[in-house]
Amino acid sequence: xxxxxxxxxxxxxxxxxxxxxxxxxxxxxxxxxxxxxxxxxxxxxxxxxxxxxxxxxxxxxxxxxxxxxxxxxxxxxxxxxxxxxxxxxxxxxxxxxxxxxxxxxxxxxxxxxxxxxxxxxxxxxxxxxxxxxxxxxxxxxxxxxxxxxxxxxxxxxxxxxxxxxxxxxxxxxxxxxxxxxxxxxxxxxxxxxxxxxxxxxxxxxxxxxxxxxxxxxxxxxxxxxxxxxxxxxxxxxxxxxxxxxxxxxxxxxxxxxxxxxxxxxxxxxxxxxxxxxxxxxxxxxxxxxxxxxxxxxxxxxxxxxxxxxxxxxxxxxxxxxxxxxxxxxxxxxxxxxxxxxxxxxxxxxxxxxxxxxxxx
Length: 360
Description:
By secondary structure, the protein is of the alpha+beta class. The chain is built from 8 helices and 20 strands. Helix 1 links the parallel strand 5 and strand 6. Helix 1 packs across helix 6. The longest helix has 17 residues. The C terminus is likely disordered.
């Protein structure tokens, strides 16, 4: 059974006293826009009469990552967050500024998820992080932080966390049952790193692409959240995942060796072998094209949908079930096949379509 600090009879948040069995919507005032409009963060509180853990469900740390926002909205709207034990705190959007501006960051260009634990006299991102740390972090035991791929990059539904270092974190990831579970290190200034330092356990759920709704990923996010809540003894039993999660202990971004127009020949979830063609880069004038071969074997867990790429741009994200570093991890970027005339590109397209059929 998971361990947690039993919440007191009364929960104190934003100047309110919330008793067991109550449901409250409160708003944390952060600042004002230059126009004078107040910016506040809505926080939904759902409390059972029976004591139990306090779980945070939060999205919108990056304002353009809409899939997590929609996931929590549907959970609230469908009245799925009525715990039998403990407390659920649901925050659909933390970075209101980014949400209003279709942006990952706050107006000064800083990333809230690199600004924890924050500073009440620091930058705007730092102030948002500090208010969260003061009001929310002391209350929670566990959390799910919902994210979406950014900058035209789409992620397959996946849980990210530190694996095999904490039994409870492993259990949360297993209970969620996402199609993929990725071992991911802690990033300085992130919510997940700061939560761990505070003795709280937070896992990250990633799906889809920024500013686009991923219906399958949203449905999987809802189901996984309910499984985590059931694992913690807070909601009734829910159906298990359709298939076991694929655990990737390492991942590698394959990057563009040449600039040009990128065309992906793989899809999310597909397994590729070492040496397999995963795409091509061509110049925009119809003279040359280059095939891209993967230097590693693994599952496609992320794809860049931006067709115009520069040298070094991330193209596809490969999740790997092996645990040993390879030459790709330890040395200079891999070499691709040399540029060649465009006439051969048609053959590559046919081969790519065949690979996509095999992957399905």
